[in-house]
Design goal:
By secondary structure, the protein is mainly β. Helix content is 5%, strand content 34%. The chain has one domain. The protein is globular. It binds zinc ion (ZN).
Length: 151
């Protein structure tokens, strides 16, 4: 592939199961499935509970709060589609509700990210049906007082 070839950033393709998650993110909500039988919060979206195998799952809006479980700073894009984003932080965030998800940390310099750092969900709307769930530092200050709040 030529270096000059324009490559689109690959985007999520919602399925029947995952569509509510992606649509929720487009609307600024972090939605998680929850098992109606055992109460487990579930991510990624699935047709049944990975703990008790019940198929009775319902969607809940999560708090959006979590902590950085681990991360790395990407300084050289793996494909040309991500070249414009470097350097960026690829992280696993552990949500207050329990599940961990792969995401990006935004709203601060990559050097400022730390393991266990409190973070809060923020959203990148791509269409009516698809949004990305990203995270930014969650300080003690309120949203309106957070200078990093408008990423
Ligand atoms: Zn269950």
């Amino acid at each position: 592939m030529s270096e000059r070839e324009v490559q689109e950033r690959p985007l999520p393709r919602p399925t029947r199961i995952s569509a509510p998650f992606w649509r929720g993110a487009a609307e600024g909500k972090l939605l998680l499935q929850r098992c109606r039988r055992c109460g487990l919060f579930i991510y990624y979206p699935r047709p049944f509970c990975p703990r008790c195998l019940a198929e009775e799952l319902e969607w809940h809006e999560a708090s959006g709060r979590g902590r950085v479980y681990t991360y790395t700073v990407v300084r050289r894009a793996a494909t040309p589609a991500f070249a414009a984003m470097v350097p960026y932080v690829l992280a696993i965030v552990e949500l207050e509700e329990g599940p961990r998800l792969v995401t990006n940390i935004v709203g601060c310099r990559p050097e400022e990210v730390r393991v266990e750092m409190p973070v809060r969900a923020t959203f990148e709307r791509l269409s009516d049906e698809v949004g990305l769930v990203l995270f930014r530092p969650d300080g003690m200050e309120t949203d309106s007082a957070d200078p990093e709040g408008q990423q």
